[in-house]
Recover the amino acids of this structure.
C-alpha cells in the first residue's frame, strides 16, 4: 500500500514536470533570480525566466518558473515596463497550481493575445476591442482541437463557453495607464435566445434565456470536470444549473436553479467542488463540501494534490460535530479530534486566534487541559506557552480574549496574573497597553500606546487608578492621589496625542465635577477659542454648557444656577458643520421657559421648532422623519388665519374661522381656493342647509355637530395636500378662536409620539357618528341625531337613502351605546351589499 502511494506521488510529480516549460528550455536561455527577484547564478536561484521572450507589437510574453521547473507566472506586459500587465495574467504556486488570476485592459495595438501551455503549445486566443474582450475567446486542447469557444461583446460574455464567467467591469488598469484610461462604456447584451428548462418552477416548461457556460476540463483530457450554466438576461450573471463529473465522465451531481442562493451565485443545496487548477484545467480535487439551505451540513473533505484524503470534517447545521480526522500524504492518521455543538470537545486542536495567531491546545470533555502553545501564523514562532488546569490558565503565558477587538498576552503563576501583561487588538506586535499585576491585582504602572508611541502612563494601587493618565478610545482621564482630576475628550482616538485636537476638558476637585472648558463649537455673537462652564454641587451654575446629542445640539447659558440663554442653529443649514457647530440663534429664558427665540422639541418621528416673541408663539416648524423620507411644515399665525407651508412640495394652505351669529364656519384654502369647509349646525334642525356630511361629537357632555363639505373633487389633488386636509378635518376646532387653534395644533405636535393618533383631537376628538347627505340634501347613509325639548335625543339610521331603524328619547349617557348598536346593523348591510 505504501509502495503504491509513493508511486502515485512520483507519477503525479512527473506529470507536473512534463507540463512545465520543458520544450521551451530546449532552445532557450534563462535569467536566474534569487528569492527577492534579484539576478543571481543558477546555483543560488529561486526563480528563472525564459529568454528570448515571445514578442508581439509593444508587448512581450513574460514566463517565469520556480527552480523546480514549475510555472510561477505567465502574462503579457509592456516591453517598456514589465510591471505594466496587459490581458490575462496568472500566478502559480510551487506545485504549478493557479494561485491568482486577473484580467487587465488591453489598450495596445495588439488585437489578439495568444497564451501557451507550459510545453509551448497554443492554449488560448482572446480578441480585444477598445481595451476589453470583444470577439471570440478560444481554448485549445494540446492536440490543437477546440475545447471551448465563447463570444464577448464589450467585455461581456454573451454567447458560448468560457473558462471563466466574470464581471465585465472586473478589469484592472496597468501602471502606465491608471491615470489616463477612464472610459468604461456599458453596452446592452445582444445574444441569441436559447431554449432551456425552467428549473425555477421545477416543471418541464420551456422558457427563453440568454445563456453562457463556464467549463473546467480535466488536465490533458477532453473530459469535463465541471460546467455551470449562467442566465445573463438583463445583464446579470445568475447560475441556474451545474454538473460535476469525475475523470471518467461519470456525473457526480447536478444542481438546478433552486439549489443556488436566491441573490447570489453560491450553492445553497448541494456539494461545492474545489479543484487544484493549472491554467484553469483541473489537476485534482482540492475539497468537496456539502451544503443544505446555505450552511454546511454533512461531510467536508480536503485532499492532497495526489488525491489522498488530507482532512475529513462533519457538519450539522453549520457546526462541526463528531470526529475530525487528519492524515498525512501517506494516508497515515495524524490527528483525530472530536467536536460537540461546533466547539472543541476531545483531542488536539489548532484554532485561529485574533486573525494572526494559531493556538494549539488539548481538550478533555470540552475543557482545555494541559499545554497550549500560541504561534504566529506568518513565521511559526512561539509567542505563548502555558499549562491549563480545569480549563483555566495555570502556569505560563497565554493568549486570551478580554473584550471586543481586545486580546491579551498574560503571564500566570498558580492561576493568578503576575508580572507584565500585554493588550493588543489583532496584531500581537501592535501593543495597545501594558500593565503589571501582583497576584491578579493591578499594582504598578500601566502604559498606553498608539502606533508604538506612548500616549499615557497610569499608576494603579490595589486595582484602582491612583496617579497618571488613563487613555481609552477618544478619551483620557487624569488621576491624582487616587481621585479623578481631569477628563479630556479628543476629536478622534487617532488625534489624542495632539493637544490642538481637544474638544473639551472636564475638571474635578476632590473627585467632584467643578468646571468644563469646551472647544467644540462657536457662538456667533461671542466668538472665542473656548467656552467655560462652572458647576456647583455638580450641576450647571454659570457659563456655557453644550448638549451632546446625536441629531441636534445646542448650548445653554446659566447665571446663578438658572438658565438664561440658549444658543442654537438651523440644523438643516448646518449639516456639514456638525463636527464644529456654529450657533447663530439666541433664545431667552424667563422662569425656565423660552419667551424670545426658538424652542426645540425632539420626538421619535418629528422635530418641532417653536418661534416665540414676548412670550407669544409666532410660528412653528414641524419636521417629519421616516425611512427615506423628510418633510418640513411651517405654521404661522398670519392675517387672522393659520398659514401652512409644505417645504417638500412648496405648497401653501390656509385655515380660517369665522363666526356668523351662533354658528362657526372654518375653511381650508389652498391656492386661493376653498377646498373644504366646516360649519356648526343646530341639532334641532332635521335638514341641513347645505350638502356634505354631518359629524356628531361630544364635548364636555354636550353633543355638537358640524357639516364637513369638500369642494375638491379631484382625488389626486386631495392626496397632494393630504396633510392640510388631515390637520383641517381632524385637528382644527371651529368652536375655538384661530389663536386657540394655532396654539392647540402646536401643542399637539409637541407632545404626540404618534402622528397618526394625533389627528382626531379637534372637533372629532369624541366623534359619536356621522351622516352623509346627497346633492338633494337627503340623508343617504349614517345616523341622524336630533335634540328634544326634554334634552333627550332621537336617533334615526339610514342606508341607501332609506330608514333602517329609529330610536327615541335616548338620554345622553346612553347615546354612545345605542349608536354602537345601530352602526353594527349598518355595517352588516354594507357587507351584504358588497357580496
Amino acid at each position: 500500500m505504501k509502495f503504491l502511494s509513493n508511486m502515485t506521488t512520483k507519477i503525479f510529480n512527473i506529470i507536473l514536470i512534463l507540463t512545465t516549460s520543458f520544450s521551451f528550455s530546449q532552445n532557450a536561455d534563462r535569467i536566474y533570480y534569487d528569492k527577492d527577484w534579484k539576478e543571481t547564478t543558477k546555483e543560488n536561484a529561486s526563480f528563472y525566466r525564459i529568454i528570448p521572450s515571445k514578442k508581439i507589437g509593444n508587448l512581450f510574453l513574460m514566463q517565469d518558473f520556480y527552480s523546480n521547473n514549475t510555472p510561477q507566472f505567465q502574462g503579457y506586459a509592456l516591453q517598456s515596463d514589465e510591471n505594466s500587465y496587459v490581458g490575462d495574467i496568472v500566478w502559480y504556486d510551487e506545485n504549478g497550481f493557479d494561485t491568482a488570476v486577473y484580467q487587465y485592459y488591453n489598450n495596445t495595438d495588439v488585437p489578439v493575445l495568444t497564451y501557451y501551455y507550459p510545453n509551448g503549445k497554443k492554449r488560448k486566443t482572446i480578441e480585444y476591442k477598445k481595451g476589453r474582450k470583444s470577439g471570440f475567446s478560444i481554448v485549445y486542447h494540446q492536440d490543437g482541437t477546440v475545447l471551448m469557444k465563447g463570444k464577448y461583446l464589450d467585455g461581456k460574455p454573451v454567447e458560448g463557453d468560457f473558462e471563466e464567467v466574470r464581471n465585465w467591469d472586473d478589469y484592472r488598469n496597468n501602471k502606465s495607464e491608471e491615470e489616463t484610461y477612464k472610459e468604461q462604456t456599458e453596452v446592452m447584451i445582444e445574444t441569441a435566445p436559447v431554449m432551456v428548462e425552467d428549473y425555477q418552477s421545477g416543471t418541464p416548461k420551456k422558457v427563453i434565456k440568454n445563456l453562457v457556460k463556464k467549463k473546467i476540463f480535466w488536465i490533458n483530457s477532453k473530459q469535463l470536470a465541471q460546467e455551470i450554466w449562467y442566465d445573463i438576461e438583463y445583464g446579470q450573471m445568475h447560475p441556474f444549473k451545474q454538473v460535476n463529473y469525475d475523470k471518467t465522465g461519470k456525473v457526480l451531481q447536478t444542481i438546478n436553479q433552486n439549489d443556488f442562493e436566491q441573490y447570489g451565485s453560491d450553492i445553497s443545496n448541494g456539494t461545492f467542488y474545489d479543484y487544484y487548477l493549472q491554467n484553469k484545467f483541473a489537476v485534482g480535487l482540492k475539497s468537496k463540501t456539502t451544503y443544505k439551505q446555505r450552511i454546511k451540513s454533512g461531510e467536508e473533505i480536503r485532499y492532497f494534490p495526489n488525491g489522498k484524503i488530507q482532512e475529513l470534517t462533519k457538519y450539522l447545521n453549520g457546526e462541526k460535530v463528531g470526529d475530525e480526522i487528519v492524515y498525512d500524504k501517506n494516508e497515515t492518521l495524524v490527528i483525530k479530534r472530536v467536536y460537540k455543538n461546533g466547539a472543541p470537545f476531545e483531542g488536539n486542536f489548532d484554532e485561529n486566534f485574533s486573525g494572526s495567531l494559531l493556538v494549539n491546545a488539548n481538550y478533555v470533555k470540552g475543557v482545555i487541559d494541559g499545554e497550549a502553545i500560541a504561534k504566529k501564523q506568518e513565521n511559526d514562532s512561539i509567542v505563548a506557552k502555558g499549562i491549563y488546569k480545569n480549563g483555566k490558565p495555570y502556569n505560563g503565558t497565554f493568549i486570551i480574549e478580554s473584550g471586543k477587538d481586545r486580546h491579551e498576552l498574560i503571564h500566570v503563576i498558580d492561576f493568578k496574573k503576575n508580572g507584565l501583561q500585554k493588550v493588543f487588538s489583532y496584531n500581537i506586535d501592535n501593543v495597545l497597553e501594558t500593565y503589571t499585576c501582583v497576584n491578579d491585582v493591578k499594582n504598578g504602572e500601566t502604559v498606553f500606546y498608539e502606533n508604538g508611541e506612548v500616549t499615557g502612563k497610569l499608576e494603579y494601587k490595589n486595582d484602582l487608578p491612583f496617579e497618571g493618565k488613563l487613555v481609552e478610545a477618544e478619551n483620557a482621564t487624569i488621576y491624582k492621589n487616587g481621585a479623578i482630576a481631569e477628563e479630556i475628550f479628543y476629536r478622534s482616538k487617532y488625534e489624542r496625542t495632539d493637544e490642538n485636537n481637544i474638544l473639551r476638558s472636564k475638571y474635578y476637585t476632590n473627585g467632584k465635577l467643578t468646571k468644563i472648558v469646551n472647544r467644540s463649537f462657536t457662538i456667533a455673537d461671542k466668538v472665542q477659542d473656548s467656552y467655560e462652564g462652572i458647576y456647583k454641587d455638580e450641576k450647571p451654575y454659570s457659563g456655557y454648557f453644550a448638549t451632546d446629542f446625536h441629531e441636534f445640539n445646542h448650548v445653554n447659558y446659566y447665571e446663578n444656577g438658572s438658565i438664561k440663554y440658549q444658543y442654537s442653529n438651523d440644523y438643516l443649514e448646518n449639516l456639514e458643520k456638525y463636527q464644529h457647530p456654529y450657533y447663530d440663534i439666541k433664545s431667552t429664558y424667563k422662569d425656565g421657559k423660552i419667551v424670545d427665540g426658538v424652542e426645540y422639541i425632539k420626538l421619535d418621528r418629528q422635530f418641532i421648532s417653536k418661534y416665540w416673541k414676548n412670550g407669544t408663539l409666532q410660528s412653528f416648524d414641524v419636521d417629519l422623519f421616516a425611512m427615506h423620507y423628510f418633510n418640513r411644515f411651517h405654521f404661522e399665525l398670519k392675517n387672522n388665519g393659520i398659514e401652512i407651508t409644505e417645504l417638500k412640495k412648496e405648497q401653501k394652505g390656509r385655515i380660517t374661522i369665522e363666526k356668523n351669529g351662533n354658528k362657526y364656519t372654518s375653511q381650508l384654502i389652498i391656492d386661493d381656493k376653498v377646498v373644504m369647509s366646516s360649519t356648526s349646525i343646530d341639532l334641532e334642525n332635521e335638514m341641513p342647509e347645505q350638502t356634505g356630511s354631518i359629524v356628531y361629537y361630544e364635548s364636555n357632555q354636550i353633543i355638537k355637530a358640524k357639516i364637513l363639505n369638500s369642494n375638491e373633487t379631484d382625488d389626486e389633488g386631495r392626496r397632494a395636500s393630504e396633510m392640510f386636509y388631515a390637520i383641517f378635518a381632524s385637528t382644527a376646532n371651529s368652536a375655538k378662536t384661530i389663536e386657540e387653534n394655532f396654539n392647540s395644533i402646536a401643542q399637539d405636535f409637541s407632545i404626540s409620539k404618534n402622528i397618526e393618533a394625533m389627528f382626531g383631537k379637534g372637533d372629532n376628538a369624541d366623534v359619536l357618528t356621522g351622516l352623509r347627505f346627497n346633492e338633494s340634501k337627503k340623508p343617504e347613509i349614517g345616523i341622524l341625531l336630533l335634540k328634544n325639548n326634554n334634552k333627550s335625543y332621537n336617533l334615526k339610521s339610514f342606508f341607501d337613502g332609506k330608514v333602517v331603524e329609529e330610536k327615541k328619547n335616548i338620554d345622553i349617557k346612553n347615546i354612545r351605546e345605542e349608536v354602537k348598536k345601530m352602526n353594527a346593523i349598518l355595517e352588516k348591510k354594507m357587507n351584504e351589499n358588497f357580496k
In short: The chain has seven helices and 63 strands.
